[in-house]
Prior knowledge:
Blueprint: H1 10-18, H2 27-39, H3 43-46, H4 56-69, E1 77-78, E2 81-82, H5 84-94, H6 108-114, H7 120-143, H8 166-175, H9 179-184, H10 191-208, H11 230-239, H12 255-267, H13 278-284, H14 288-303, E3 312-317, E4 322-327, E5 330-340, E6 349-358, E7 362-363, H15 366-379, H16 383-386, E8 389-392, E9 401-402, E10 420-423, E11 434-437, E12 446-447, E13 461-463, E14 467-469, H17 472-479, H18 489-497, E15 502-515, E16 519-521, E17 528-530, H19 538-546
Helix pairs in contact: 2-7, 5-7, 10-14, 14-19, 17-18
Amino acid sequence: MRFSLFAVPVLLLCLLFSAAPAPGAGPGQTLHNALTRLLDNQPTAALDMITTGTDPATIDRALLSLYIKKDIQPLWITNNLPDSRAQALLVTLQESILEGLNPDDYKVAEILTLWPREDASSLARLDVLLTLALGRYVADMREGSADPCQLNPKLFAAARDHEVDILQVVNEALQSEDLGAFLKNQAPSHEAYRGLRKALADYRELQQDGGWKTIADGPTIKPGMTDPRIPLIVERLVKTGELESDAHNGRQYDQKLTDAVRRFQHRFLLEVDGIVGKKTLAAMNIPLSKLIERIILNMERWRWLPHRLNGKRIFVNIAGFQLFGATDEQVEITMPVIVGKVYHKTPVFTGSLHYLEINPFWNIPNSIAENEMVPHMQKDPDYLSKKNIRIFEGWQENAPEIDPTAIDWQTIGKGIRRYRLRQDPGPDNALGRIKFMFPNVNNIYLHDTPAHALFLKTTRNFSHGCIRVMRPLELGEYLLEGNKKPLKVEQLKKLVESNKRKVILLDKQLPVHILYRTVRASAATGKLFFYPDVYQRDALLAKALFARKPLSQCRYVQ
Length: 558
């Protein structure tokens, strides 16, 4: 949680902290003095509310400035009792667990202990604690609660990129007619987030009911076979709704159970073959606590996006190998995609789609030219001509073309980087027949591919980082629907068949969100889908979300 820094006039501070209670001062003045003493005594440290990644002195100064603007009067106490706004805040902090947050982060237990007390010291402590808890809760909801100290900004670029102004937050809260509604509105409005929130409650209920038992390893179970583990498999599938509770008896692996296993495999992005092999069994044995953790991790990821996503836009889920097109979060098109290999990870970021390019050239990146083209040419001097790749003397647009035989491919090495290798349009072009451009520093874009057989794979991380789409003509039609001159699939197909390069600008740029979501809740059914953590980022995020480090050990402070 980050708060803005506010300067406090030194003279005013001196006057405040040198003030002594007047003779006959009443309870209000006593509480005023108790607040003054607490605010002058490093309150974030005194209340154990230091947030990793933020300088406590910054929060203390912001807090003091806030109370000075309120004449050092309590914000949540009326007539020596917590008021209705304090009650609404306490309820929200207690229910933060429903958002995948930890009520302990907001000192709920201490707040409850202080709540009935009437002495000035306790009331002052309660008031400042509520103020800090409010700021922290809103910051966690608006920008995420993961520890920035442990979030590598290169891997989690979308996280925690907003600054929360404690003065503004508290003033908004106090001025709102309905504080409970104000706090509720801090949550993302995304339907995907709400689906995960409900799933979290459902899976916690399963956990309270005992979860499921571990199914022993053993031979692969195929349809028609009998196996002593069948009752446990049935119990496991009933727990998460792939099978009705009365749909199966005995040890026979019948058709109903096979269909249920297929549904389970689909939800875990496994090969949907109805066979209970090692991978399917391993997925069934994932502890319920681990699935709950993954739900919480993905709720956190949604908090990093703008909380309202209105209008038409494109989403790509790297972990799910899926593209979605939606307007006001109503999904209108979806298709499989291929993403980057483990060593060529597709980054997470947001961009704006500007144009489509029909029959694109492919300017081959230096790394690919050096590491892939040079070795191919060393083995086969005709490789480039076979692939319709030409060489230019430099990267300028007017650079002259050169003959590949003029290069000593056996010794060129990194020297190939001074040349530009370009693959002409055609059926073998690595970008396929269409690419979709949203300029970004990562040089990542959406494009077609000649290797359509790879879409038959369940796990599809095969690219050098760019995103290959399965049905580019359909995507093109969808993107151009809002243009003054929309184009249908057949019209785009004719342009492709012309074999001529053509750029089609969008009348209105569309946001593109490249996401990493390892759990998704179906908007239609509420069912959860668990995707492989292809880049092993869940463990990194879990460490940042569930573990805390002292500020002095913070490596990735932003």
